[in-house]
Amino acid sequence: MSAALPTVADKPRYVAAMFGRIAARYDLMNTIMTAGQDGAWRRVVAETALASPHPATAVLDVGTGTGKLAQVMLEAAPAARVVGVDFTYGMLRVAPRGLRLAAADALRLPFSDGEFDAIVSAFVVRNLADVPRGVMEQVRVLRPGGRLVVLETTPGPPGVLRPLYRMFFRRVAPLLGRLIAGDGTAYTYLPESTLAFLEPARLADLLRQQGLVDVTIRRLALGCVAVVSGRKPAILPAPGGTP
Question: Is there a domain that residue 140 lies in?
Fold first, then answer.
């Protein structure tokens, strides 16, 4: 494991403190580092989550941060109850007023089984101390027939582009972090957590292991990010089984 990454035991405290420090410049850094494409990626999440014959009346954004994805979901489904949760108070304080936001741990969501028609997240899952448990919690609060959608960075595009991708993350991102966000340490952790995270195919397998079906992968930005989604069947099999 990279020295830039915290231990599993320290990860919740480390991540909460880090995002609290960079909250004020987080959205600006995302826009710069993605060349302004992060907004388009969130719209893909919304389209994927709402691609159902049944309208979504309740949507949960896990790890909502400054509320960007929750805003996009509300714009796409204005009649829905859109709730965003995050365990970093500093990020929630930066979010615009008018959104339904709450402080909550993604590993212990304070909602009833099957409460939401769609569950989404953006750049959150790799920061969880226990990724399978986090996915399991999301599946628990998703209604049968609902869709779970995860937008995440990947360890990099295949082939000759991967070394360039890694060089950008390990050298350019920390420099931008120091200059713009005033925190090079955070923008050393974020790239390293990306490079250490699951390939999209492995994340898709994890969704299947939690009983989801119709699992799809949509790679964006030459494979640097991916939207992985799955649907909860009417009868959920035991984790690791098949519907």
Answer: yes
